[in-house]
Design brief:
This protein is of the alpha/beta class and 415 residues long. The chain has helices at residues 16-31, 46-57, 63-87, 119-126, 153-163, 197-205, 213-221, 275-285, 314-323, 325-328, 355-365, 389-399, and strands at residues 3-8, 35-40, 92-95, 102-104, 113-116, 130-134, 137-139, 145-147, 168-173, 194-196, 226-230, 238-241, 254-270, 293-299, 302-310, 332-345, 372-376, 379-385. 33% of the residues lie in helices and 27% in strands. The structure holds aspartic acid (ASP) and magnesium ion.
Length: 415
């Protein structure tokens, strides 16, 4: 017998028929003698539809009411799935995030979980109940409902696995696992058998949408064995765990990419010790989130600063910098739109020199111009033109031999 937390995403519970199908799967796991907590998302695209309803009323809804609205999506699913389980003779009970003891910080729209009072859940699990918990939500100390940020149901599942000391957390979704890169864009993408927490965290933060970054962070911090697999087909998924041996000695495990990147250049800033802190505190006070930053000195008295932002913050960024032109004493402001960030990720690069060289050579050989670069211990990101994005990913996928991952057919798995 094991204690298992299973999470089913929006597409997996997108219709009554799909909910009945998930109920069959859960009923089988219960029949096999396991203790089960199920975490679900809102049905299909219903969270987006709720956002749209709010926008039809006001462009500026209060964050508290937004949370009140959005959390109803998951409540529909928990009630329906619980009914479907009860119809099958499974002793199931539904819980909102607050009822499940999920206490968050006081931050509507993107709250972090502070603690989980799991006494009630543990009691019910021990009494043989199957618990169906609404993902993506919690409550703050004063009882107000909060949400954990879009895609946050993954985090609910991992947090509940940690709090109930579950043997594992299984995330069921519309893909069959974590891939070397997005298979919707790159035909040669391969499913990984395993990936480390750190690699997955980089991939998730770099825009690989398969898991919510905070869920990975949680799994790493609390040592929760995590699995991503399909809710539709019975196929072995991907394990996310602490130590992963590098398949076939590959130094790179995956390639993440995202478009809508814009590069801003502030040219001719005075070469003074306070220029950089002044510039970035102005940006931060306007809520501009900066990614890659490059500084270079172009004469004794001046530096140029380039940084990347997402396309949607371009207007605010330009406006606040133009406004601060006198204070910052820069000469000119430029921006370049329609860029993309392509990143290679792998723990193997810590101990293998030449990874960046291979990346840059492969891109250059294919006439892909690199506009910015940033690195961490286990990733190298290059900003390229959006038109080159998919080609860059394909070229790097070949250069790092990622199509050699798991060439053999996946074994079947019983779920
Ligand atoms: N329903 C929420 C969303 O669409 C949370 C989730 O699905 O994880 O973002
Ligand atoms: Mg998701």
């Amino acid at each position: 017998m094991a204690r298992v937390v299973q999470k089913y995403g929006g597409t997996s519970v997108g219709s009554v028929k799909k909910i009945e199908n998930i109920a069959n799967r859960v009923a089988r796991v219960v029949e096999d003698g396991n203790e089960v907590v199920v975490v679900v998302s809102a049905m299909g695209k219903s969270t987006d539809q709720l956002v749209q309803l709010a926008n039809d009323i006001t462009k500026n809804p209060s964050k508290r009411e937004m949370d009140m609205l959005l959390t109803t999506g998951e409540q529909v699913t928990i009630a329906l799935l619980t009914m479907a389980l009860q119809k099958r003779g499974v002793d199931a009970l539904s819980y909102t995030g607050g009822q499940a003891g999920i206490l968050t910080e006081a931050n509507h729209g993107n709250a972090r979980i502070r603690e989980i009072d799991s006494a009630r859940l543990n009691e019910q699990l021990e009494a043989g109940k199957v618990l169906v918990v609404a993902g993506f939500q919690g409550i703050m100390e004063d009882g107000s409902i909060t949400t954990l940020g879009r895609g946050g149901s993954d985090t609910t599942a991992v947090a509940l696995a940690a709090a109930t000391k579950a043997d594992r957390c299984e995330i069921y979704t519309d893909v069959t696992g974590v891939f070397t890169t997005d298979p919707r864009y790159v035909e040669k993408a391969r499913k990984l058998q395993a990936i480390s927490y750190d690699e997955m965290l980089e991939m998730a933060n770099l825009g690989a949408g398969v898991l919510h970054p905070r869920a990975v962070e949680f799994a790493k911090n609390y040592d929760v064995p995590l699995m991503v697999a399909s809710s539709m087909v019975e196929e072995t998924g991907t394990m996310i765990e602490e130590e992963v041996t590098v398949e076939k000695n590959l130094v790179v495990r995956g390639i993440a990419f995202e478009n809508d990147v814009t590069k801003i250049t502030v040219a001719g800033l005075p070469n003074r010790i306070d220029s950089l802190p002044k510039l970035f505190s102005i940006l931060s006070s306007h809520g501009v989130n900066v990614d890659i930053i490059i500084q270079n000195q172009y004469d004794a008295n001046h530096v140029n600063i380039s940084f990347s932002i997402t396309q949607c913050s371009l207007k605010d960024t330009v406006a606040c910098l133009e406004q601060a032109k006198e204070e910052l004493e820069f000469e000119t402001l430029h921006h370049e739109e329609e860029l993309a960030k392509v990143s290679i990720v792998g723990s193997g690069m810590i101990s293998n020199p030449g990874v960046a060289a291979t990346m840059f050579e492969a891109l250059a050989k294919n006439d892909i111009f690199i506009k910015m670069v940033s690195t961490s211990e286990i990733k190298v990101s290059a900003v390229v033109s959006e038109d080159d994005m998919v080609m860059a990913v394909e070229v790097l996928h070949d250069a790092f031999k990622l199509d050699e991952v798991l060439a053999e057919a996946p074994e079947k798995q019983l779920v």
